[in-house]
Amino acid sequence: MNLKLVPLVLLALAPLAFGQVDIGLNPAQSDTKPNEGLAPVRAEQKFTTNALIGYVNSEPIFVMDMLRPINDELTRLADPKSGRDLNTFKIEARRAIEAQLKRHVSDTLLLANARTTISDEDTKKIDMFMNKERNDLLAKYGGSQATADAALRAVGSSFDKELQDKRRRVMTELLLHRELMPRIVVTRPMILEEYKRNTAKYSQDAEVDLHTITIPVGRFLVEKDPLNPEKERRIKDPTPERIRSAEIEATNAARDLLNRIKKGEKFAELAGEYSADSRKNNGGRWPRIKKGALADQSLENYAFTLKSDSLGEPLLIRDTDDPFKSKVVIVKVGEVKQAKTLTFEEVQDKIRDDLRNKQYNEMMSDYYNKLYKKAAIEAVDRMVDVCLEVAVTRYAVR
Fold it and tell me: Any residues with CB less than 8 A from the CB of 13 and at least 6 apart, and which?
């Protein structure tokens, strides 16, 4: 869990006190005694995602509580392209289900603590936050709860279930934040030691914000078709003189476009109209290019010679084997970053955050483990078996 996960609206809430939590069966729904553990399941039953497999703090646990949070992982494990056989799927799916069961039990116990300790003011602020979450979720599905329910049903969820889970996460994150944050200690010597130990990690790759308009030389290696004088055709086996003439024409065409850009016409609009490269429909813009990423090294090397926010002169990139692959490129760059090792001053804030997050995650893991070990949980293997049985049917059997 990252420290930044806690919603900002909740950071000002009042401190929480850590209370006692019990695990047991719901007395009204089981013949076993309270706090004996999780409700046993019967071996002869056929199970579905709606099967009830136990209780934690009187809250029922259903198969889907285990499978839904790991839906993407189980889908990936069952993908035929992965090459896994059924036995391998079972082994890896069991491992994922066991981890999810542990998380679910720990989260439920943590939630019980949060519910007994948050203040009325906390609740009001959480309600405000959840109201926004509800509106955002509705907007995602066109404002229709029915549409949301239909889409979420495919992954074993619902509109209300999504909001319920979100509220649970907010409450548990708030409790964890208040329990663990005061224990985090990151000093300047610790930050400096980390920097010295991993200096290579704190380097900046050379990057450029690249835009291009590409004029193919082959666009000018044409002649009138003698069979249809109104049309043009490619020149077969053009002479060196004709190739050179086409290169000059392409360069002049690029220079004319460059002058139009300098006079105020939009680079992106001209790229869409005249360019012939793969970025034409993106206004000539490339994703940020790291040094060594472009197949065309001539273009890349030229781009890194330019100053940030500048236009280069038309660049002729000649293909000596096939003149129809030669091109003239207008290059525009936004920010240009050169490779360098970042100074301690430049990265100390990031290192501080990294160290704080590392401590937080380690403490959170330890917190969960201790919470889980205190729980009186029985029949865990059988619970996992039931979930695995459903997972095999749902994901792996076709």
Answer: 118, 119, 121, 122, 125, 174, 178
Give the mean model confidence (pLDDT) for residues 93-118. 88
Query: Which among 232, 277, 233, 236 has a CA at the least distance from the CA of 254?
Result: 277
DSSP state string for 43-105: TT----TT-EEEEETTEEEEHHHHHGGGHHHHHHHH-GGG---HHHHHHHHHHHHHHHHHHHH
143: left (phi over 0), alpha (psi -120 to 50) or beta: left
Q: How far is CA 349 from CA 187, 340, 344, 355, in A?
A: 12, 18, 9, 10
- Look at residues 306, 298, 371, 353 and name the one whose alpha carbon lies nearest to residue 329: 298
Answer for the pair 70, 96: CB distance below 8 angstroms, yes or no: yes
Residue 369 CB neighbour total at 10 angstroms = 12
60-96 pLDDT tens trace: 888 988 998 999 999 999 998 888 899 999 999 999 9
Domains defined along the chain, listed by start? 3-188+347-396 (no CATH), 204-341 (3.10.50.40)
pTM: 0.55
Q: Which long-range contacts (CB under 8 A, 24 or more apart) does 62-68 make?
A: 63/386, 63/387, 63/390, 64/156, 65/104, 66/97, 66/100, 66/101, 66/104, 66/387, 67/97, 67/100, 67/156, 67/387, 67/390, 67/391, 67/394, 68/155, 68/156, 68/157
As given in the structure block, the two tokens for residue 288 are: 């940020």
Is 70 exceeded by the pLDDT of residue 33? no
Helix axes 240-262, 267-274, angle to 10 degrees: 150
Q: H or E element: which one contains 300?
A: helix 297-303
Structure tokens belonging to residue 259: 């002058």
Q: What's the angle, vertex CA 146, arms to CA 142 and CA 147, rounded to 5?
A: 45
Task: Kindly report, residue by residue over 166-210, the tens digit of the pLDDT.
Answer: 998 899 888 888 889 999 999 999 999 999 999 888 888 899 999
Mean pLDDT of 1-10: 36
Query: pLDDT, tens digit, for every residue of 36-63?
Result: 333 333 434 456 778 888 877 677 888 9
What is the per-residue pLDDT for 104?
87
DSSP state, 340?
E
